[in-house]
Amino acid sequence: MSSTFGTLFRVATFGESHCKGVGAIVDGCPPNLALSEADIQVQLDRRRPGQSKMTTDRQEADQVTILSGVENGRTLGTPIGLLVPNKDQRPGDYASMAQIPRPSHADYTYQLKYGIRASSGGGRSSARETIGRVAAGAIAEKLLLERYNVQIVAWVSAVHEVVAGPIDMEIITRDQVDQNFIRCPDKAAADQMMAAIKAARDAKDSLGGVLTCVCRNVPAGLGEPVFDKLEALLAHAMLSIPATKGFEIGSGFEGTRLKGSQHNDPFVQKGDRLGTQTNRSGGIQGGISNGESIYFRVAFKPPATIGQAQSTVDFEGRDTVLEAKGRHDPCVVPRAVPIVESMAALVLMDGVLRQAARCVGSLRP
Known about the structure:
18 strands; globular; 5-stranded antiparallel β-sheet; 8 helices; Chorismate synthase, AroC fold; alpha+beta
């Protein structure tokens, strides 16, 4: 199904940008996990709109309610229903755009596919759909942290032409990432990013950027040869996020400039296991996690909805000029940080359950 993700840890999201609410159904969560709304709200607060002048001014508390699957603070092993109401709805903001497909937006392709679309805010193509992913991902992340000490941290590593300096991925924390609204731990770069986003916003324009994510303490053995390789599943997850246009893992495209003798990760003894001296593989070899930290980067395009006048055509092919209304982020990457973390958690949790089904003792907590 188009709105369902995962094999054993399954998530189905629902809702449009300006309907009564959005959320998710989580099926396959193991029983007896201590879980409350507060566990989920932390990540939703990092994703919500209206956090600063660098984001959309839509005002939503994004308060989650657990509808089912939890009793007396413990998961039951049954489907968990999660609901977040839409409070600050303004579908009227989009009335003037109902007959004009926004350039580089999903308006045209949704209309082609379904013959109808939610014209207010983009409907399911809106970033508001990601609320369900983040809520579900928070549950997966809690399981991963408690049972395997898996730590997932993402941060903004580039906005437009501003690139952050090197970050030590083995020690970076979310507290360090959240020290500024841009969620870039390099303060000098963050200041430049904020200035660039402000200039784009004032010009009624938008900017793209890159997120880097590291997943530490991931158990070895996750990933399914041949088609469900772990990096393929991560790529699937990341490229399903709105506005994404690129994914690379480990050395990525830069690795193509190295020779094999330079790129290979020699094995060394690390305590009671083999590890690698370097990690250009990004923690995955042959599509299977090797016990090293997994790291990857995700590219986000500039948001398509901008206030500048753009020459285009309407759905009838008639020339027109579009000056888009509504409330939109001039750059999505700061708010995308918890979305990337959540999708990574969903992939890894599903991988853990699939591997544990083989009764591999090394994965037992």
